[in-house]
Amino acid sequence: MTEDGFIVNDFAPENEKLTNKFAVQTMQNFWSKYNTGNFFNNRALNYRQIRAWAEGKQDTSELQDQVLTRLPGGEPDSSWANLDFNPAAILPVFIDGTVGDFMSLKYRVKCNAVDPGSKSKKLEAKQRDLNILQFQPVLQKLELATGIQSPKSKFETEEEIEVHYDNFKLGLETAVEKTVTSIFESCSIESIQRRMFYDLLNLKMAVVRCYYDINYRSQFEYIDPELYISTASLKEDFSDVNLEGHVEYVTIGELKRQSGWDNEKLYKIACKYTGEFGNSQTIGAYQPGLLDSSYQWMNNKVMVFHFEFLSIDNTNYKIKTNKFGKVRVYENEISKVPEENISRRIQNCYKGSWVVNSDDVYNYGMKENMIRKRLNGAVDTKTQTGYFKFAPNMRYGENKSHTERAITFAKQWQLAWTKLQQFLARAIPPGYKININGMTPVDLGNGKSTMGPIEMKIFHEQTSVYIYDSSKEGGDEERVRSPLEPFIIPIGELNKLMDACNFCLEQIRNVLGRPQGVDTSTPNPDMLVGVLDQVRKAAAISLEPLRNGFTEIMKNSINYLCMMVQDKGTSAYANAIGDLDVGLLELASDLELASLGMDIEYEPDNAERQQMRATLDFEVKNGKLPSEDALHIMTLPTLKLMMDTMKVKRKQYAREQIRIAQANTEAQTKSNIQAAQAAEAARKDTALATLKAQENLEWTKGYVQVFVEQKKADLAAGAMHNEHINTLAEMALQGQIALQQTPTTPNAVA
Fold it and tell me: In which domain, by residue range, is 692 found?
């Protein structure tokens, strides 16, 4: 039972629930409770008014009542106003800017398998790399000893391994991500996303639907919140509703295509909707046998409610263990082996289409391929509809959008702007008030001419001098007011209206998250950088509930799409993702539906990228990171991955610099040793040469001394004259000189 008292009869037998009569009664009961007081139409009217303001197409009749005088029993009298009451498009420029900021947020589908098997595979791969890194020295020694090649670690530290496996993807995870991304691309996701952001900003609610097409391809479509209907909800995500759907206004011809009904039945339905939705008041008599194109009423429109509701049923299951040793659960199947059969109360989903305010439904029955979460062979008893919605900050079924709050100030702005127009339209240009009685002709005193009022005015305009006669009758002078007084526009009133316009404009900016500094079209050159950052952060915080709402819708719908793909129709994506990935999906479906945690991961926005780039530039400038690593980091998809990679690359670069420094030190040391050795060798060679030269000198001195003594002996014997002594001395001197040129061995000298 929901908050509004609506009850789906869970206790009715399943065969009764499957009848059109049950569906019609359920829908009529729901509609009577839901649309009490014409709630649906009133809400739709409110949404249209908000959207009109958001598009600059709002009704200005209220404004005319505020500015103009309404004649008794008539329309406001604007005959003398000369005012423009066309809607002022003050909100669209800010709304479009905010939506543009939302659209600039890029994200990627993220899949994380959390079933025990997938977790085990990741842990095994991670532990293998940790072991290889830890035992790398031992493995290298073993390779040298045995000659058998050992595994080499791709990582240098455990931190690198942690970063790698934080972003590691199994084949199944990658296949699921690619499949969901291909579904989004085929459904024009950017168009749907833009409409969702407009709805969140204008209506503070967004709705999408996931369903199978006739080829069992998963589809993702936008639903207008104006057309969405559900039982009352107290939750932002509407997870507590048990009946929901959306209204579609279709022609009788389209209704025939959807339902397959014959023309006679369709004619009766058309008669119920005469005069509604732009249909003619008369429809004429039914004439069987005519072509559909001959029936004018085939173009008449009717209201159709496409619905889904949840109900509790007793359901039979067959449980078997397949050849892989995994438990499979088969819903609504009965085994010949009694032990394999179980019966339990389980929630089912019913769907169909109802022509509103009629006794007619079509395409009704239990929903095929109901999505249920499965883990370790157990099937969740709950299912869910294909609608995904979110209304941020909803309380007791109500919330107020940013645009709706901004309309209050937009109305005041338009009133002030209109009064400013009125003021300017009624204002008389600057000039003079002229007292005709005071402008009597003035005698110029030359006895020949006088100056009349026209001449005095012209003379004043050309010379800025005004001449007038201040004398009374009889010749006496008196103080009289100048007949020409300036008329000046009251600037104070004008400034008040302009201040009111600017105040309302600033409030609109703040409400819509577009304060000066955020909106680049109107930057404030006097705002400091730090103040500007604070303004932008405050604007982002004010819009955060909308971003969270979008994230929740996308995350929940992606999970649903993922289970739809695993449950049926994987082969339909072969062209998009490849046969290999299709095989992985089919294998996962055959063994056990893996428990996949689906989410969206936002890429860094412009501000985050700028901050990251500044950080990297600082690291490069200070020699802590090479420029090529900085360029690589900026290409990574997420801010977390950027930061983690920067830490790893910075440590790698530091280690590399240490290795280079050590290598340089070792090389320098080796060079110094070699230089010292060379110097020592040179010194030894020099010493040896000196020693040999000294030895040669001593030998030569001895040889000369022996030669001199021999000659002295000869002279003493009388063989020579005294003059030969001088010759001998000279010879001795020449012998010393020859010492420098003589061979180093006695044999050579000899």
Answer: 680-749
